[in-house]
């Protein structure tokens, strides 16, 4: 009897003992179980003949629940069956009028609206890849993004016609077919497609049209600003689409959930994690053209939203809204995203209730990622043995001054110690490939790091500094190289420097990102030299940048210098400039601030600086 009593007592205290010794054992076990189950599913899809794509998953969902709402948008609802029929119309129209065939690429220059989704599905039914163009870009950047993916067709929204017209001569020269989602257009070289789509058959297309699509086929091109140059087209395979779609599943989203998408569909977050992830779950999406802090919770209540998506700025905007008595009156239970500060994270939970924040780390083109499945505030995830096995990765020591990994006497990289900040690298293997960038072999090679731990090995260089603590929690620290992130967008400093140097009064420009207290990411700043005999033209520089760059990419602070400091290899130095920031009292050089209200650069006085710090001037 005494022995049995001892055994029962031991069993009774075992859960408490395990929780004390291994506080995250349960969450780790659930996460590992989900990961293995999803890996088995993906393996099954990959080996199935023919390959089972996310499009096939959508078609199965149409059969399973045809009348279930897939999309809520501006007072209208679209069922799975309606979206399927609309995508059939698109496919039949484009097959006839654009003569599209399997393997072709079509560029989509569209905002957040339902037709974005069924045009993509329609292209999938023809076995075509889609290039998702950022609707903020213009001129040289737009032409570059279009050209590098090898697209022969571009489909644009009517409100973006002016941007298309600007590059139309080059498109016509290259024999590119341009279609506008409108019923009338008087511009020669632009063909309207809306009437043709509306008149097309909504009958299903034979699967034979996409019979050659495999797990390694290109499904999408999503653009990301790299360390240098113009935006790069990350090549997203069918396998990668599945991997991104599974993020909702790993976060605990079910088919009964309603997912709120207010991030741009041209980004991997809004499109792959949000929309495509909802197709994988068989759930409903609430789609919004643009994020609105004032309407956010009203939308959530109106549509009974249970899962929201965010970037760091999103949650900050919500926390900056005036408090209301009913702000906890909602059904949201999960938030998936990245880039939220610890203080905002805490304030968000205090104000809006017990929402499971699934902060994640991933790169569109990367081969390793993390997700915080424990809700530990501040972490972007955990590094566990299953993940290290399937997707080998490490943090290595990095010299931020030289902007290169630290190597030992044998020329190999050195692992960062637990708790030490290091550069994240992911081993390039069959299960964790790096597919590179379309039409940009040079930039693809730059992201490959060899001789990391063994001679001849090959790793993906994330360009990000992370930290893994003693408990295996992962924390994002900073970005390296020539990219900064502002308003949820990556900005390539070389592109901005090139454009800024074209301004009438500027000789050279060195662009970098600086931190602003109370804001996520880094805002753009530039150190410039002026042309001989010229003064800084505040109005012309503003107008020039407004013509070429979206607001988030424009330098908000400009520092006039006599000469730009460079390295021995003539690379512009940024570290000291970043550290010095933009406080007038600490800098002798003339400083200017981008005033959107006055549509010009204005002197950055101590008074203006104080207004920025107190947030009386909005950035």
Automatic annotation (TrEMBL):
Pfam families named in the record: AMP-binding, AMP-binding_C
Q: Residues in domain AMP-dependent synthetase/ligase?
A: 60-406
Quote the CDD domains the UniProt record gives: hsFATP2a_ACSVL_like
Task: Give the keywords, sorted.
Answer: Cell membrane, Fatty acid metabolism, Ligase, Lipid metabolism, Lipid transport, Membrane, Nucleotide-binding, Transmembrane, Transmembrane helix, Transport
Membrane topology, as annotated: Multi-pass membrane protein
Organism, by scientific name, is Chanos chanos
Q: Which PROSITE patterns match?
A: AMP_BINDING (PS00455)
Q: Name one GO cellular component term.
A: plasma membrane
The record, for Gene3D superfamilies, names: 3.30.300.30, N-terminal domain of ligase-like
Gene Ontology BP term (one): long-chain fatty acid import into cell
Name of this chain's protein: long-chain-fatty-acid--CoA ligase
Query: Per the database record, which ranges form the AMP-binding enzyme C-terminal domain?
Result: 498-571
User: For this protein, what is any one GO molecular function term?
Assistant: long-chain fatty acid transmembrane transporter activity
Give the enzyme's main class according to its UniProt record, as a single word.
ligase
Subcellular location(s) per record = Cell membrane
**Catalytic activity annotated for this protein?**
a long-chain fatty acid + ATP + CoA = a long-chain fatty acyl-CoA + AMP + diphosphate; a very long-chain fatty acid + ATP + CoA = a very long-chain fatty acyl-CoA + AMP + diphosphate; tetracosanoate + ATP + CoA = tetracosanoyl-CoA + AMP + diphosphate
* Family note: Belongs to the ATP-dependent AMP-binding enzyme family.
InterPro entries from the entry? Answer: AMP-bd_C, AMP-bd_C_sf, AMP-binding_CS, AMP-dep_synth/lig_dom, ANL_N_sf
Where along the sequence do coiled-coil regions lie?
none
PANTHER family for the chain: LONG-CHAIN FATTY ACID TRANSPORT PROTEIN, LONG-CHAIN FATTY ACID TRANSPORT PROTEIN 2
Q: Which gene encodes it?
A: zgc:101540
Q: What is its EC number?
A: 6.2.1.3
